Amino acid sequence: MITLSEENYLKAIYHLGKQGAAAVSTNAIAEKIESKASSVTDMVKKLADKNLAHYIKYQGVSLTNDGRLAAALVVRKHRLWEVFLVEKLNFSWDEVHDVAEQLEHIKSQKLVNELDAFLGFPTHDPHGDPIPDKDGNYAPIKSVNILELEIGSEGVLSLVKDSSDVFLKYLNKNNLALGDVIKVLDFEPFDDSVTIQTKNKQIIISKEVAKNLYLSQ
Amino acid sequence: MITLSEENYLKAIYHLGKQGAAAVSTNAIAEKIESKASSVTDMVKKLADKNLAHYIKYQGVSLTNDGRLAAALVVRKHRLWEVFLVEKLNFSWDEVHDVAEQLEHIKSQKLVNELDAFLGFPTHDPHGDPIPDKDGNYAPIKSVNILELEIGSEGVLSLVKDSSDVFLKYLNKNNLALGDVIKVLDFEPFDDSVTIQTKNKQIIISKEVAKNLYLSQ
DNA sequence: ATATATTTTTAGACAAGTCTAAAAATTATA
DNA sequence: TATAATTTTTAGACTTGTCTAAAAATATAT
Ligand SMILES: [Mn+2]
Ligand SMILES: [Mn+2]
Ligand SMILES: [Mn+2]
Ligand SMILES: [Mn+2]
User: Fold this and answer.
1) Do A17 and A24 form a contact (C-beta atoms < 8 A)?
2) How far are the Cα atoms of A14, A26, A38, A61, B80 from residue A49, in angstroms, in the given order?
3) Element (H, E) at B170
4) How far apart are the two ends of chain A, measured CA to CA in Å?
5) Which of A52, A92, A121, B200 is the most buried if burial means most Cβ atoms within 10 Å?
6) For residue B180, pLDDT beyond 70
7) What percent of chain B has pLDDT over 70?
8) According to its UniProt entry, what is the function of this protein (chains A, B) (predicted)?
């Protein structure tokens, strides 16, 4: 049995492991999970004892196959619940995260799979993140960050990397939503801001914002 | 903030308080919650400290208004989730309890109220139990136990008091479900068993079974 | 290569929730 | 009403998950 706390650590390691090196550092986990390095060390030992993580003192952590599957299944639940909240319960995309953080820990195979079916087997959550299947797999992400595009190129906004409500409210305020067609008009060398066009309107977005927007096609 | 454990104790006291005396005994709570009397004593002190329960040493426990509302809201969530699982996710009535035990602790006002609306403001759960509203109130139960009826009287099965999967599977096996029209044909004095008719079929049910079946109209 | 800064681990403490065993209070019985 | 049985509480211990402060290891900079 994997506890709620263990699940949160597995998920943190899973996410940190994606965007970076093979081994994840104690401090990185502590920051992500808003705890302290010493707590992470303790927990990581437990995960290693349960064969969910590889751990070498001072060398960082990585997930075993079992650990990665367990983490992916938590992420699967998180994202399916987010879809449920938005599609069925009138939540907006900036309201779902905290509730999904609770719902992702509910233990019931049948519940997850029936929920998946009820939602029509969605492939992405309301923020464009892919939903792992029961084996923890998902289709590779094909969208590319705005900063890597050429001037004049166009695409559909299909993933926002930051799912914090502050960022999502910013997007709401600027009338930007998943599915919008966006055209890159200019890159400003001074501050790396980007001018984009969407819905016949031009707006300038900062580098920090651009870093979180991914277009496809 | 009320913890998960505190919610479970509140619920136990709430349920025990209904079908009996004003003050609930330590042992009764321990049995219901499958813990030990000493654990109950500890927890009950905490509930009293938080003004959720009235507690006098050796004299038992009862809920304050705050405690009763908190308990009713947990019960509300439990029953709404049971309806969701049966109506939307193809669970049968003997599969919902354990999952609802987890879901009832999810904290989100919006979630509960949107779920309620999504389900069409149901008044009863899949076992016929009433669903409290946001103020913890529900319409008084008007159904009456089979053992209290006269021979020849007829009614609709509208509440099963025992929601354990063993009992519900027994009902499934005997093709008895909520909404069935049932007629009382005979009471056997020897063992208090009851002969009933439903769907043009006669069956004999034991006293233990009859105690859990409530008919309305 | 050595000294300094940073990261990570260890040691020890604490809160929540639980348990067993013993003591105290209440209730039942003779 | 005195004694026995039962219930409830207390005392002390244990687990999980967390923290702070100090020690140890690793990384960085001269
Ligand atoms: Mn999320
Ligand atoms: Mn998301
Ligand atoms: Mn139930
Ligand atoms: Mn029920």
Assistant:
1) yes
2) 18, 17, 17, 13, 39
3) helix B165-173
4) 42
5) A52
6) yes
7) 99
8) In the presence of manganese, represses expression of mntH and mntS. Up-regulates expression of mntP.
Q: Does B38 touch chain A (CB under 8 A)?
A: no
The beta-carbon neighbor of A90 closest among B91, B99, B114 is B114
Which residue from B136, B3, B184, B79 is spatially nearest to A4, judged by alpha carbons? B3
- Read off the pLDDT of residues A171-210 as tens digits, 9 standing for 90 and up: 999 999 999 999 999 999 999 999 999 988 999 999 999 9
What is the value of pTM for the model shown? 0.95
Within 10 A of B28 (CB to CB), how many other CB atoms are there? 20
- The mean predicted confidence, pLDDT, of chain B is 96
Contact B106 A102 (CB under 8 A): yes
Distance CA A47, CA A34 (A): 18
User: What is the per-residue DSSP string for B51-105?
Assistant: TSEEEETTTEEEE-HHHHHHHHHHHHHHHHHHHHHHHHS---TTTSHHHHHHHTT
Q: List the A26 CA – C7 C1' distance (angstroms).
A: 9
Strands B60-63 vs B144-145: parallel, antiparallel or unpaired: unpaired
Measured from the CB, is A38 under 7 Å from any atom of strand D?
yes
Residue B96 phi, psi (nearest 5): -85, -25
Rounded CA separation A123/A196 (Å): 27
